[in-house]
Amino acid sequence: MPRRTRLWQGIVFPLSADQTKNSLIGAEVVLCSGLPRMISPLDLTHEDISTLRQALYDYSVLVIRKQNGIEPSVLPQLARIWDEDIVYMHSGGAKANHTEFHGVPLSQEETESGQTRFHRRHMVMPCYEALPGRVTLVHGVKIPKAPDQKVVFENGTVLRIAAGATAFVSGALAFSLLSTEEQSFALNTTIQYAPRRCEIPLDELPLWKNDHVQSHTMVWRNPGRPAQPHLQILGACIHSLKTADPYRGEITTVDDVAEARRIFHTFMKKAMSAEFIYAHTWEEGDLVIFYNQGVLHSITGQLKDEKRLMWQCNMASSMPPERFTGE
Questions:
Q1: How far apart are CA 155 and CA 153, in angstroms?
Q2: pTM for this structure?
Q3: What is the SS3 assignment for 170?
Q4: Looking at residue 88, what is its pLDDT?
Q5: Is 304 left (phi over 0), alpha (psi -120 to 50) or beta?
Q6: Sheet containing 295-299: which strands, arranged edge to edge?
Q7: Residue 210 phi/psi, 5° resolution?
Q8: DSSP assignment of 14-68, as one string?
Q9: How far apart are CA 84 and CA 313, in angstroms?
Q10: Beta-carbon neighbour count of residue 325 at 10 Å?
């Protein structure tokens, strides 16, 4: 990856190893002094736009500090740098309290000791009708101060994070950690997603149309780094797996949801390690742009009675993610 890239309006450089560890992701965009403090596509040259576009594909997560006061309408304008054919957008707030998500939350004693959890690793991906977008933008408007917390992994290792940090894992790194056999399986497997989360039987869901339900390959192509495969799986909505034998063309189907999720968990668990996670520490004014088709992310932590305000711009693309073919 390039160590430093110059923009007319500033410089893109990798975040420090202390922040990103071995995650392979994370760069900061520093705007030049004397120019508008808040980023806007109207102030960018064609070269700047090209540089920003490639930087996201190189680093997966871009951080722009001190964007306090940026207009919400600028976020979808920036999103079009990476996808000119946005067909649908929605915004939302980010709430950080894992106790409201997990079926068995941490005990009071664990929580009081500063322990927390990831909510769930995922992409912004409805799985129904709207296609996953290439990019998501999140702006930290109001960030409360709270003591740092920690995630304790099954093997006892500890990841210390800021309260409410957003954790990112590289799909490219996840793929690289698979065995040769697992990589072959992933490259030849298509995931059939459910219209909604799989815990609800299909016949008990609200009215849905089969042609709106999506299926995607397990491994996606990065348009800025076409030789770099990304393992991208939305585990909560897996319905079945279909794997093609690359030599005989025979199709093997896994339609047991528990088994399909076991495979997903086995594949992704290798990357879910403290050394491979970039946990972004939020500061007021931060604008974080991440490559939604190249990373999984999760909010973390609990802020107790504190409230934070985040703007999140999600977008749907007009085209499905590209299958990785090595070309």
A1: 5
A2: 0.92
A3: strand
A4: 64
A5: left
A6: 278-280, 166-170, 295-299
A7: -65, -35
A8: EPPHHHHTTS---EEEEEPTTS-SS--GGG--HHHHHHHHHHHHHHSEEEE---T
A9: 15
A10: 11
Number of residues assigned to the chain: 327
Rounded CA-CA distance 62/60 in Å is 7
The DSSP call for residue 105 is P
Residue pair 152/109 in contact by the 8 Å Cβ criterion:
no
For 203-233, what is each residue's pLDDT tens digit?
888 888 989 999 999 999 999 999 999 999 9
Q: Give the side-chain half-sphere CA count within 13 A for 117.
A: 17
Q: Is the pLDDT at 290 greater than 80, yes or no?
A: yes
Q: Show the tokens assigned to 103.
A: 């079926």
Find how far residue 174's CA is from the centre of its chain: 13
Tokens of 141: 């408007």
28/283 Cα distance (integer angstroms): 13
Query: What amino acid is encoded at 88 in this protein?
Result: Y
Distances (CA, A) of 43 to 9, 12, 74, 125, 270: 8, 16, 12, 31, 42
The token pair that represents 303 in the structure block: 């802020």
pLDDT score at 89 = 58
Residue 121 has pLDDT above 90, yes or no: no
Give the DSSP per-residue string, 241-308: EEEE-TTT--EEEE--HHHHHHHHHHHHHTT-SGGG-EEE---TT-EEEEETTTEEEEEB-B-TT---
Residue 103 has pLDDT above 90, yes or no: no
Q: What is the DSSP string of 110-140?
A: HHHTTEE-B---B-S--SBSSEEPSEEEEEE
Q: Is 70:80 a contact under the CB 8 Å cutoff?
A: no
Contact 2, 272 (CB under 8 A): no
